[in-house]
Amino acid sequence: MRILVTGGAGYIGSHTVRHLQAHGHFVHVYDNLSRGHAASIPAEIFTQGDLHDLSKLDHVMATNQIEAVIHFAAFAQVGESTKNPELYYRNNVAGTISLVEAMKRCNISKLVFSSTCATYGNPTVVPIVEETPQKPINPYGKTKLIVEWMLKDLCAAHKWSCASLRYFNAAGASPDGGIGEDHNPETHLIPLALSAAAGRSKFLEIFGTDYPTPDGTCIRDYIHVDDLANAHRLALEKTLPGEHLCLNLGTGKGNSVYEILNAVKDITGKAVPFTIGARREGDPPALVASCKKANLRLGWEANYKDIREIITTAWRWHQSHPDGYKTR
Ligand code: UFG
Predict the structure, then answer these.
(1) Same domain, yes or no, for 130 and 245?
(2) Which CATH number characterizes residue 24's domain?
(3) Ligand 1, atom 27: nearest CA belongs to which residue?
(4) What is the spatial distance between Cα 260 and Cα 208, in angstroms, rounded to a whole number?
(5) Residues 214-248: pLDDT tens digits?
(6) What is the β-pairing status of strands 274-277 and 161-167?
(7) Ramachandran region, residue 206 (left: φ > 0; alpha: ψ -120 to 50; beta: rest)
(8) Could you tell me the pTM of the whole model?
(9) Strand ranges (DSSP E) for 196-243?
(10) What spacing in Å lies between the alpha carbon of 245 and ligand 1's midpoint?
(11) Range of the domain at 47
């Protein structure tokens, strides 16, 4: 298939680009580089451009004879979205409207959309199934849910085939250490814990130890970024015309913050210095996916089932690229 990957220079996007190429697909990346890294993808398959640049979008789709789109390009920081919601509605919602209009002009009707477990908000029952009511508690989650609704209507009206993949906590890096996670600012637990273990920051702050979980810290379902990449390819290949397929992507297993810090210590051989701080606003106590539907519909399951294997790949990337893509 000839696939356009928007946001393909980002963390999950760049791993998906590699995966698609390894499976024989033609890939072209469209990314404005506001958050992504040109160094994470081959230059010859890249066009720098913005979702709001309609003529550029049309041009890149037509000249590359694109047949399907995987749409990652979005902002994804919960905290930022609560401080600057208009940025999130403009980029995540209006940007996606531009994209689907360009797809319509170019007769492209297959789309895989990067959604999130943040659309569920604060669910009381785990593991979370796809039928769990979606009640996002921050603007980031709301923008992703609005796009899911739009895609459902497009599938009904125009017989498009769309998949909304609701990721849990993306983690890890390419096992060869060539590409990995590089956010600015970094807010995610695993890279921050590795950084603290490596002595590059003084300590990690644990956001709350008084949650109703066995050890008092939050539980999350960490899923390897290459497992996410594989699910995108399968979703593209297996979603039916007229269908809006919504799937959770996780391992089905949760790890607490303390468990992550212990795993980081085992892998790096260095204890993670930490302090205990207050809860971070908007953090639900436990988010764990039920992945039965993805298994049923795509024949997909996570290859990386052990958090230690996931952290091992992240540590390899961290060691070879301590400053991310800026490392020479
Ligand atoms: N945490 C800390 N200290 C830190 C960073 C994180 O204790 O310095 C804790 C958080 O409180 C949370 C866990 O580690 O309990 C994981 O936090 P991350 O920031 O790594 O990930 P989140 O679960 O907050 O965010 C992820 C995605 C978001 C998505 C969200 C849905 O990164 O895009 O899940 O809840 F919206």
Answers:
(1) yes
(2) 3.40.50.720
(3) 169
(4) 14
(5) 999 999 999 999 999 999 999 999 999 999 999 99
(6) unpaired
(7) beta
(8) 0.97
(9) 204-207, 219-220, 222-224
(10) 26
(11) 2-171+223-249
Strand 219-220 relative to strand 255-256, pairing: antiparallel
Whether residue 257 is found in the same domain as residue 239 = no
Dump pLDDT digits (tens) for 288-297. Answer: 999 999 999 9
CB-defined site of ligand 1, < 6 Å: 76, 78, 116-118, 140, 169, 187-189, 192, 204-207, 218, 220, 257, 280, 283, 287
- Number of CB atoms found within 10 A of residue 69's CB: 24
- Which residue owns the Cα nearest ligand 1 atom 18? 188
Question: Are both 159 and 194 inside the same structural domain?
Answer: no
- 218 Cα: distance to centroid of ligand 1 (angstroms): 9
- pLDDT > 60? residue 328: no
Q: Is 140 a catalytic residue?
A: yes
Same domain for 238 and 155: yes
- Could you tell me if residue 184 is inside a domain? no
* Residue 281: per-residue pLDDT: 85
Torsion angle of the four alpha carbons 81, 86, 88, 94, in this order, in degrees rounded to the nearest 10: 170
Domain membership of residue 40 (yes or no) is yes
Mean pLDDT on 133-161? 97
Residue with tokens 């720098």: 48
Distance (angstroms) between ligand 1 centre and the Cα of 175 equals 23
Nearest residue (by CA) to ligand 1, atom 24, is: 283
Percent of the chain with pLDDT over 70: 99
- Tens-place pLDDT, residues 193-218: 999 999 999 999 999 999 999 999 99
| Residue tagged active-site, from 11, 88, 140, 222 | 140
pLDDT category at 282 given cuts 50, 70, 90 is: confident
- The pLDDT value given to residue 9: 98
